[in-house]
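Support request, priority: normal
Reporter: lab tech (M.K.)
Component: structure prediction queue

Hi team, I submitted a job for Dihydroxyacetone kinase from Kibdelosporangium persicum yesterday, and the status page still shows it as pending. I've pasted the exact input below so you can check whether something in the sequence is tripping the parser. The sequence length should be 538 residues. Please let me know if I need to resubmit or if it's stuck on your end.
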Amino acid sequence: MLQVLDAAAIRRWAAVSVQTLSAQREAIDRINVFPVADGDTGSNLLGTMRAALEALLRAPVDERSETGAALTVLAKGALAGARGNSGVIVSQMLRGLAESLRDVDQAGADDLAKALVRAAELASEAVAEPRAGTMLTVLTACAAGARRNRSGVLHEVTAAAARAASEALALTPQQLDVLAEAGVVDAGGRGVLVLLESLVTVVNERDEPVVPYSTSQPSPVAAREAGSTEFGYEVMYLLDSTTGEKAGHLRETLTTLGDCVSVVGDGDGLWTVHVHCNDVGAAIEAGIETGRPHRIMVARFADAEGVPSRFGRARVVVIPARGAGIAALFRTEGALVLEIGPNDEPDVWDLLNLITSTGASHVTVLPGDEGLMGIADEAAARAVAGGQDVIVVPCASPVQALAALAVHDPARRAGDDVVAMAEASAGTRRGELVVASEDAITWIGPCRAGDLLGFADGDVMRIEHGPVDASKIVRGACAIVDRMLAAGGELVTALLGADAPDSLSDDLERYLRREYPAAEFVAYRGGQRDNVVMLGVE
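Reply from support: The job had stalled in the queue. We restarted it manually and it finished. Here are the results:
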């Protein structure tokens, strides 16, 4: 087995990928139903990787003699020859690998894990409105799987990445209703898995492509909870823009299509619709004629014996997160994320849909924000009523959610894992710098709009009078760290906001190295708009 990836291994990976995509092209084309059922995803991926391989084979020796250089040529060739949306995403995946390994001659296990994270980030940035259940979901899971493997052994990290991608691919029909209706997994995600399986082949030094992880997945399967065995599907959706009278007519229509019909409202214009039927399209069309159906979920009932429940996996962690940067960070760490835009209002139904669509019997929710605790509790209560085991771990800040996620261990008993995450969150002190939006009186004195306020564990502990500049931000951040480290701590985490100066991370690291040499420091670009920086001390 290979211990490192060198330029020769990269060339073989590209060749095996082309060979395997060629063999599976028609199969991938057949399951291509999203975003457009044009049956060409396999062909597009094959064309893109062929262009990448040809560019690598034509490149001068000095431009392809090192790992990073070979990947750079591959990425440029893929971009120049990209076919379709899936081809563009793969080109960005290759670009991320190349950027991360630019100066690397031979890439080890840790190098590859970091490179896969960067590959997932750039691929996501290539899509204006990323959707769960696509090849981006599979790429993100692959990166998280590689990061979680701490063995330092190349073939184990590669296998972990492919295995995580396979598990994510199997769940794509539960995230996109069009896949569920067609009974297929995402075609682009399957293509990503082919690339990873090809890498497994190369790292294991096999002569022929191997498929160690299943790429043929059934549609989502649910246990039949009640009703006649003549109906094979469960259809559920939310409905609004209708009236009580129309909802009554919908109930009558659905009764002619199947059984276990329920159309119930919340008294405020929102209705939940449920039916067991065979004609999935008719059930959804009836909803369209009645109002506006959304959050549509379709599951096929178990036809064979031995399927114990409707849950496809044991445990997941779900996090609602404000801002793209923080959401991307949580995804990298393996969580399923409900991303809340800067101008969006938190929606309990969005979070509930994510929880139920995971297909997990046990879900841990990390709110990561005091303002999101309410919707997390409500979504959890509704999911529990539907048969899932959902626990909300109190987290008042993203830094506390990060601390909880860092100790998450799927191999532990669920109860023990929740306790460990709760202890990690509670043991993380939090601070932040915020620019005051209006004049106010704090318990340490008055502040004016535009002043810089320093908070430690929710209390104002410092005021830097405006106007705000880089030096005041650095001074305020150091003061917060001093306050929190006074009680001890080994790790300081900083989430840099959109308005944080570029030098803040370096300035904080220098300060900590000088004043607290035993403390570790890590910083991430969170990009949040509601504060300049968030700080955590563990």
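DSSP finds 18 helices and 17 strands in the chain. The longest helix spans residues 7-30. Let us know if anything else looks off. Ticket resolved.
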